[in-house]
């Protein structure tokens, strides 16, 4: 395997997680009796550009197909995040009815609906048909394709270039990351801006967020590596914000290198902090496997103890990160009775690998488990607030990352 950015031979293993089913490939009752496809999940770090990455063993077109079940609009905190972003972007970039905004990986129109409400001309690019159709139902024009140089050139010919390109939690999902970034350079106007959000590698390592590793995430990104990749196609990161979303993300602001937007102190400060932490040295990545194994041991010990004591454990949130966690921990049948999820697209299905049934959130009140393991820990405050009624029967919430905690 070679680095997907700089083509260096990869030999340094960041973490080997064994074999996993694709984390969003939920199973119907009929599929439980069929063989389940599993793929290696081994993560490497490039010794040259320090891009952390997995190989493309599960093809993107097979992941983001018509059965893709992740719909962004089922998280109220994520909708708030999108609304606040829209208000910021309109104000900072002086967007109006003469502007053109595009979002790559626009999902179900969770963000562009706010642009539309403010009369900002916009459209989305979304490869998954089910989510693109959901966006169209909101009145959002959606191109149902994968983004890269080829599509960018066709859009420029048909529609012209854009003032603002948005890419939230997509940069990590593309196998040909150089082609994707070059597409941004083609589509954005000379004085235009691109903003991209992605989980910050530094937070992943420091807080042992190994459950955010799955086949949909081909790359794990630092500001230093992203700045290098953008510079290779004539783009410049001129600002960066550190966000709390997804356990700690970056929002980078990029423009053409010759654009007159000044590079902020925030960029230089974070680049210096990453370097001082050691992100440009292989030693920084060496102990991650050991940290992940400690989390595994802690969760298995907790679940086994509850079963021995006759206590019942359920899970909340059939998120991709939850499937990574449970499969890495080799959760046996009976340790977690069921999982609830707000998305009707997942209810009635079974979680990949573990085959835990996914039910509607009302099942918590019906079944009254003693413990509820929150799998999408990044929105644990939202979940605990919405379902604090479990305290009425003595129920308690639990999180496993970065270490086991009973709330």
Provide a quick synopsis of the model.
The protein is an alpha/beta fold. The protein has 13 helices and 17 strands.
Radius of gyration: 21 Å
Beta percentage is 15-25%
Strand order of the largest sheet: 6-5-4-7-8-11-10
Distance between the termini: 42 Å
Say how many strands there are: 17
Secondary structural class: alpha/beta
Low-confidence stretches: none
Give the helices and strands as they follow along the chain.
EEEHHEHEHEHEHEHEHEEHHEHEEHEHEE
Helix coverage percent of residues?
Answer: 25-40%
Sheet of most strands: 7 strands, mixed
Shape: globular
Mean pLDDT: 93
Walk me through this protein's architecture.
The mean pLDDT is 93. Helices cover 31% and strands 21% of the residues. The protein has helices at residues 60-63, 76-92, 112-117, 129-137, 149-159, 177-187, 201-206, 223-231, 265-277, 288-308, 320-328, 363-367, 380-386; strands spanning 12-20, 39-45, 52-53, 101-104, 122-125, 142-143, 162-168, 188-199, 219-220, 235-243, 249-256, 313-316, 339-340, 358-359, 371-374, 396-399, 405-406. The chain has 407 residues and is of the alpha/beta class. It is globular and about 65 Å long. It has 13 helices and 17 strands.
Features:
13 helices; 31% helix; 407 residues; 7-stranded mixed β-sheet; alpha/beta; 6-stranded mixed β-sheet; 17 strands; globular
Secondary structure: elements and pairs:
Elements (H helix, E strand, L loop, with lengths): L11 E9 L18 E7 L6 E2 L6 H4 L12 H17 L8 E4 L7 H6 L4 E4 L3 H9 L4 E2 L5 H11 L2 E7 L8 H11 E12 L1 H6 L12 E2 L2 H9 L3 E9 L5 E8 L8 H13 L10 H21 L4 E4 L3 H9 L10 E2 L17 E2 L3 H5 L3 E4 L5 H7 L9 E4 L5 E2 L1
Helix pairs in contact: 5-6
């Amino acid at each position: 395997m070679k680095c997907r950015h700089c083509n260096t031979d990869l030999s340094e293993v960041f973490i080997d997680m064994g074999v996993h089913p694709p984390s969003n490939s939920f199973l119907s009752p009929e599929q439980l009796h069929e063989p389940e496809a599993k793929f290696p999940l081994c993560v490497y770090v490039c010794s040259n550009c320090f891009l952390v990455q997995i190989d493309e063993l599960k093809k993107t077109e097979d992941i983001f197909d018509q059965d893709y079940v992740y719909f962004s609009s089922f998280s109220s905190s994520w909708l708030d995040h999108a609304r606040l972003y829209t208000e910021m972007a309109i104000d900072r970039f002086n967007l109006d009815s003469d502007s053109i905004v595009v979002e790559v990986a626009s999902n179900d129109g969770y963000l562009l609906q706010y642009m539309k409400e403010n009369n900002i001309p916009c459209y989305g690019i979304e490869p998954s048909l089910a989510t693109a159709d959901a966006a169209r139902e909101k009145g959002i024009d959606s191109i149902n394709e994968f983004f890269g140089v080829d599509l960018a050139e066709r859009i420029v010919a048909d529609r012209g270039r854009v003032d603002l390109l948005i890419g939230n939690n997509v940069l990590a999902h593309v196998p040909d990351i150089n082609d994707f970034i070059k597409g941004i350079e083609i589509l954005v106007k000379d004085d235009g801006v691109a903003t991209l959000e992605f989980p910050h590698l530094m937070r992943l390592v420091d807080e042992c967020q190994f459950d955010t590793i799955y086949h949909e995430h081909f790359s794990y990104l630092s500001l230093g590596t992203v700045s290098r990749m953008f510079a290779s196609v004539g783009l410049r990161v001129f600002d960066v914000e550190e966000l709390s979303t997804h356990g700690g993300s970056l929002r980078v602001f990029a423009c053409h290198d010759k654009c007159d937007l000044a590079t902020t102190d925030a960029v230089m400060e974070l680049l210096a902090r990453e370097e001082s932490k050691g992100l440009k040295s292989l030693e920084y990545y060496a102990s991650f496997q050991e940290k992940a194994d400690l989390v595994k041991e802690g969760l298995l010990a907790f679940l086994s103890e509850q079963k021995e004591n006759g206590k019942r454990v359920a899970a909340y949130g059939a998120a991709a990160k939850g499937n990574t966690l449970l499969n890495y921990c080799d959760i046996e049948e009976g340790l977690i009775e069921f999982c609830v999820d707000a998305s009707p697209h997942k209810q009635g299905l079974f979680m990949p690998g573990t085959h835990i049934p996914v039910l509607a959130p009302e099942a918590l009140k019906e079944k009254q488990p003693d413990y509820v393991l929150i799998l999408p820990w990044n929105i644990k405050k939202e979940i605990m607030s919405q379902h604090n009624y479990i305290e009425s029967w003595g129920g308690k919430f639990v999180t496993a990352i970065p270490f086991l905690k009973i709330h």
